[in-house]
Every structure is written in structure tokens, then in C-alpha cells.
Amino acid sequence: MQKVLIITYYWPPAGGPGVQRWLKFTKYLVEKGYDVHVYVPDNPAYPLRDEALQKDVPKEAKVVKQPIFEPYALASFFGRKHVKTISSGVVPDDKKQSLVQRFMLWVRGNLFIPDARLFWVKPSVRFLSKYVQANDIQTIITSGPPHSLHLIGMQLKEKHNLRWLADFRDPWTTIEYHDKLKLSAYAQKRHKQLEKQVLHAADDVIVTSPLTVKEFQALTHKPVHLITNGFDSEVKKSNDLDEKFTLAHIGSLLSSRNPHNLWKAISACKKDLPGFANDLSIVLIGVVSEEVKETLFTYGLEAQVQLMGYLSHEEVVVHQAKSQVLLLIEANNPVKRCILPGKVFEYMSAGRPIVAFGVDDSDIQHIIEKSEAGKYFTYDQFDAIVAHITALYKAYKAGQLSVGTKGIDAYHRSQLTNHLIDIIENPTKI
Question: How does pLDDT run across 328-346, given as a tens digit for each residue?
């Protein structure tokens, strides 16, 4: 039986999108006959928790926990709200940042390289050096961010000549928030150095989007494989749709994800379409920045907005399935072209029309257009957005609001695990 050790920070009871990828890979690796060992922190400072995910951990998986020291715990004297906001990735616009927030961002970017989990590296290498030998493990997989975990993988490979796969759920130095960390020239250089070291040392690199494949192929001669995020069997279509004309967004709406022309277009439809204001419900599930809230209120949408906060994944998939329309909003930033979050695939599996926003020529745009799962807009397309929202509303009133998505089966977590197994069992010769 093939043995695999997965090293990940996000694991139940962690909530949010970061936990899903390797929780599901673990599930299907076990089903396909693998002896799976998972190494996770014993006392992590998760900004979001979803206790219901505990039941999704397969009982056959051997989950090993070790304590972690995280400076976020010490930073709480600045205020728990500030700490939770920064650790969740919610970074206000520069002009609206308080002195405390500016200081915390500087500390996070310049003193904790590559991230605030770097103190887990040395103790983890010590513990796992004994563990891999005692359990005869030959293949390890690290998942980042946090990218400190890749440093664990790199050192274990150096010490024990293990097969090492480095999985990047997001890019490293080109991720959107990287430039907001107020990095010094030294810190920026150090991040680049560590990224290069990891990409050269890993036997195989796995990424989640086609553009990230190209980005990393330009940085390393090692094999770079594409395994996107996906959906699992709990995401189902529903015949019991909302009575309201719901436009639902699931996930964080940060300051950088604020499509003014969408809110403006919805406001215009309120004025021009009879009955629209009474039928409309804008459902926002997850963290919503103050800037986004202010914009919604500026366009007179406060009466139609439901701020539901963070919900468990079980609750989220229900809302995805019953919403009339699903909003998918990414930042109006060229570096976001490569981001393909898991909710893209869960949205498609839910079978509801998607209205997506981002920069032109993004991976999200290509996958939505190829699958015919909805419409994609750039932030400046006001007239086209108005026309599309109008068409969706008329279809809703006629009881004909639907979408025909193509090729969704390829993104089921079981199929994606087959790609992972192929990488594990067929090393690329260099």
C-alpha cells in the first residue's frame, strides 16, 4: 500500500476555502487504497472555524498533530478585531488603514518571512524526521499558503531524500495581498529567494490554475502540474429555489473586490424595472469589507442586502443550490488572472447562472465561457451588466431562469485525485 504524508496548516475544524482541497484529496486517496498520514498543527489560530467538517475526515487517515507557536496570539493586545481582520486577509485600502493596521502589516511582511507560521518549521522537521523513518514514508506533500510549510518539505527532502510534491493553492510572490505587506527591499528579495529555492528543490510542483503553471514554469525546470480545485458530492442541484430574485455571493468580499458598476447596474434596474426592487435580494455570505458595505449603501441597496456573515460549508452548499443567480467577484487586478477558487467549481455544480467579475483574459473567464456556466464581465462594462441583469430578471419572472453547464464532471474531487495519483506514481524523469 502506497504511503503518503500530507503536511497542511488548514484542517478541520478550520473553516474557509483553504481546508477543502486536502481534506477532499485525503478522502479520495483513502478510498483509492492509499495509507494517508496528515500532519497538522495542534493549536492553530484559525480565523474561521467550521466544526461540521470534522465528520468529513476519513477515519482511516492517520492525523498527527504537533503544537505551533503563532505570533498572532501575542499580537492580540492590539485588539482581537485587528488581528482577526489581518489574519483573514481583509486588508483595508491604504487611505483607510489605521496606524495599528499599518504597523501590523509591516510586521507581518518584514519580520515573519515567509509568513507567521515560520516558527513551526524547525520543530516540525525534528518531529517528522523521526516519523517518516518510523513509518517508512517515501512521499510527502506540502500545501501552501502558508508557504512556511514548503520549507518543512524542503528540509525533510534534504535530510531523508524523500519524494516531495509542493502544492500551491495560491501563488507566492505574485498573490494580490503580497504588495500590501509594506515589504522592505530585503523582505521582497528574501521572499523571491525562498520561492526559487522551493521550486527548484521540489520533485514536482502542483498548482491550481493554467496561468500559474506558466508563471512557475518560467521560474523552475521542475515539472509543474495543473490540478484545479473542484467540487464534491455534497454540492447538488436543487428544485427548491428562492422565491426572491436572489443574487448570492459566497466568500470574502474584500476592499479590492468591489465592482461599483455591478451595484450601480442593480440600482438602475431598481429604478427602471417594475417589481424589481420588491423581488430583489442580495445575499452576501462571508466577510464583507466596510468599503463594500459603504458602496452598496451609496447606491441605495441597503434594503435589499442580507449580510449573513460566515456560514458552515454545509449551509453554504444549500444557499448555492437554491439561489437564483450566483455572483463571482474577483479583484480588478491583473495578478488575479490566475486565481481559480474552489467556489467556481461548486457554483458550476450547483447549476445556477453565474455572473462573474474580474480582469480580462483571466482563468476564471476562460473556464466559465468554456463551460457555458454564466457570463463574465470586466469592471467597466456598465451597459452590458445592466442588460444582463435585466435579461436574468425577465427569465426569473417567466420561470425560465436556468443554465446548461458543460464538462463539469472533470472537476469532481474524485477525478482530480486520479490526476494526483498519476503524479505520485509516475515520477517525471529530469
Answer: 999 998 888 998 989 999 9
Task: Determine the residue type at 152.
Answer: I
Whether 239 maps to a domain, the answer reads no
Domain count, the chain: 2
Residue whose cell numbers read 510534491: 165
Please state the pTM of the whole predicted model. 0.91
* Residues 215 and 282 occupy one common structural domain: no
- From residue 429, alpha-carbon distances to 166, 204, 227, 409, 419 in Å are 17, 10, 20, 30, 17
Same domain, 145 and 224: yes
Q: What's 221-269 look like in SS3?
A: CCCEEECCCCECCCCCCCCCCCCCEEEEEECCECCCCCCHHHHHHHHHH
C-alpha cell at 138: 517515501
pLDDT digits (tens, 9 = 90+) for 47-100: 889 999 999 999 999 999 999 988 765 554 444 554 455 444 555 555 666 676
Give the span between the Cα atoms of 225 and 207, in whole angstroms.
Answer: 6
Residues 31 and 67 in one domain: yes
Q: Where are the alpha helices (DSSP H) in 273-405?
A: 276-279, 290-298, 313-322, 342-350, 363-371, 382-397
Indicate whether 204 and 308 sit together in one domain. Answer: no
Q: Write out pLDDT tens, residues 15-28.
A: 988 999 999 999 99
Place of cell 475526515: 57
Residue numbers of the domain that contains 218: 3-230+412-425
Whether 177 maps to a domain, the answer reads yes
Q: Would you say the C-alpha torsion 358, 19, 293, 368 has a positive or negative sign?
A: positive
Q: Are residues 224 and 141 in the same domain?
A: yes
| CB of 267 closer than 8 Å to CB of 291 | no
Q: 323 with 362, same domain? A: yes
The mean pLDDT value of the chain amounts to 91
232 pLDDT more than 60? yes
